[in-house]
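Hi V.,

Quick status before I head out on leave. The structure for the redesign project is tokenized and pasted below; the design run finished overnight.
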């Protein structure tokens, strides 16, 4: 039997833990834990202790069932400093600065822990689960509460020199646009994330609804709801055109909750992408919506643990 890893996919309002054997998740647990709220309602040091306590408690329970686990990989929604593995900053978990998640968890669970950006982990998971040849690459964009991105280049996860590579959600697509959690204005995630879709719809209709409720309205023909998804699709396509011009990777996977509404976005997306791409690249992009469900984040985090430790 091969060595087991644990992969953890941490989100703003919940996290998922999986025991991974090769490409199979042999055990999975979803934990409701609103880390975003904890960060917004507590001092940063108190919030951090609470996040480590909750995470290590669950991991210790899983490890007691699977003691043969050799290492743990964590996909975390934030900028991860490649020099020391610290979480440098997390736009959706405000207040956290230079926290040592890997070190604090290693102490609490007595196993090697590596931490990587959640979207990079998902990108690596998609790459493995899709059985892509090791010399090829993949661009991943996850449309959730925010928008994350990950790049696999020649089979290797590409984090950048400061851990900021592929922060695609913060590519500015609208001049003087909405204020973003990163401090700039007009970032793509202010339009193409679930939160962005809610804001667009609210600007148009005055009503505050969740992105999935807006998708239902759009399917029934509501023009404001359709516009909110058009705005999301165009912003995403603008950003992708820039990314492809820089990295020249043909395979693109769109994941995250908003990707379930892809049929509402595909026409506007393709139109904008073709308009913005260098003409010779039109038709060369192989884009698909993630078909791995929630598995990629867990499998990718586990494979990063295997890859790095
Ligand atoms: Zn931003």
């Amino acid at each position: 039997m091969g060595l087991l890893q644990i992969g953890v996919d941490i989100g703003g309002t919940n996290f998922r833990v999986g025991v991974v054997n090769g490409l199979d998740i042999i055990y999975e647990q979803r934990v409701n834990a609103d880390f975003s709220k904890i960060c917004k309602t507590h001092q940063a040091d108190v919030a951090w202790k609470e996040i480590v306590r909750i995470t290590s408690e669950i991991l210790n329970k899983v490890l007691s069932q699977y003691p043969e686990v050799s290492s743990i990989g964590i996909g975390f929604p934030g900028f991860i400093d490649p020099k020391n593995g610290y979480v440098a900053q997390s736009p959706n978990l405000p207040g956290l600065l230079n926290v040592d998640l890997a070190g604090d968890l290693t102490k609490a669970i007595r196993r090697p822990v590596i931490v990587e950006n959640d979207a990079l982990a998902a990108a690596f998971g998609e790459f493995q689960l899709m059985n892509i040849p090791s010399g090829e690459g993949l661009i991943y964009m996850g449309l959730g509460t925010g928008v994350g991105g990950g790049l696999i280049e020649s089979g290797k996860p590409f984090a950048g020199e400061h851990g900021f590579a592929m922060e695609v959600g913060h590519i500015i697509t609208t001049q003087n646009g909405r204020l973003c959690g990163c401090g700039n204005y007009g970032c793509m995630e202010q339009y193409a994330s679930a939160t962005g879709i809610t804001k667009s719809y609210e600007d148009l209709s005055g009503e505050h609804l969740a992105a999935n409720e807006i998708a239902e309205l759009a399917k029934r023909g509501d023009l404001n709801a359709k516009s909110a998804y058009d705005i999301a699709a165009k912003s995403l396509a603008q950003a992708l055109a820039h990314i492809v011009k820089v990295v020249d990777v043909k395979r693109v996977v769109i994941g995250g909750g908003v990707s379930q509404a892809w049929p509402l976005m595909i026409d506007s997306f393709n139109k904008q992408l073709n308009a913005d791409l260098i003409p010779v690249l039109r038709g060369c992009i192989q884009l698909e919506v993630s078909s791995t469900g929630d598995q990629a984040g867990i499998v990718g985090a586990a494979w990063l643990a295997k890859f790095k430790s």
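Above is the designed sequence. The longest helix spans residues 223-247.

G. will cover questions while I'm gone.

Best,
W.
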